[in-house]
Amino acid sequence: MSSVHAVDRKTLYVAVCFGLLSAFIWGAWPVLSRFGVQKTLSAYDIAALRFMVAGLILLPFVLKRGTGTLGLPKTLVLTVGQGIPHVLLGIIGLAYAPAGHAGVLIPSAMIAVSTLGGWFILRDRPEKAVLIGILVVMGGAALSGWRSMTDSGGQVWLGDLLFIAAGALWGIYTIASRAWEVDAFQATALVSVVSMLLYLPLYFLWGTPGILAAPLSEIVFQGLFQGVFAAIVALLFYTKAVTVLGATRGSIFGGLVPCIASVLGIFVLCEVPSSLEVAGVILASAGMIYVFGYRK
């Protein structure tokens, strides 16, 4: 029996709320990141803003606490899963493929990796009802992004591969945070600060820093969203949800990302979803209700 059954109802509901909020922020991420690279900033500029803002905010905590019981090796694993490689793969992919592709492929890859990893590595065997719910959510995710997945050509395949790789790293983070019972704030702080220390010197010394010439409004907007909400708030809430619910059930929130991205895309990118995409939103929502309404 999964350990989630031992959790009291109030704690379970709080974890679900954390997961929903993280899903909303990550659903906005491909849309707002795509919006950013279509303006003045490049993918590398947006990544620099994310790491700079989040790293500086959380640096005092890391200086005081260090890596704690995690140690450097585990810290680096978490950083790979939600830090430099994950973020750069996702944002660079948006230069080749539309936000709709990221909204589908990144969470789908995360769900596959975290579910299989939770099963074989953590022995967190998913119940049949959970597997069915996850499949339903993934089906909804596929429907919501089907049009964008079939309407593009050129080098879109390269962006898709980068999205899949980014999702796989996210799955690794999901498994690791559950296996090591990671404190959510500690993990968020370490990932942000280590990413800042490793990436910013490379960006300023050998890159082409576009943030030095970009409009202040773009810098402030992307800095706040990427550095505060996407890097700190969403990761903090997601880690809390996974710690309570487990890698398998925690991964279900990733299936909502394409649905949220589709809705936000209407207002930000003027991308009106087709009837197929609307069906995907409904299907994914139904899958989530099924999973969390299930009681063995």
Automatic annotation (TrEMBL):
Mode of membrane association: Multi-pass membrane protein
SUPFAM superfamilies xrefs: Multidrug resistance efflux transporter EmrE (SSF103481)
Keyword Transport listed: no
Coiled coil: none
Record-annotated EamA domain positions: 15-144, 158-292
Gene Ontology CC annotations of this record: membrane
Positions of transmembrane segments: 12-29, 41-63, 75-96, 102-122, 129-149, 155-175, 187-207, 219-238, 250-269, 275-294
Record flagged with keyword Cytoplasm: no
Keywords: Membrane, Transmembrane, Transmembrane helix
Compartment(s): Membrane
Stated family: Belongs to the EamA transporter family.
Protein name as annotated: EamA family transporter
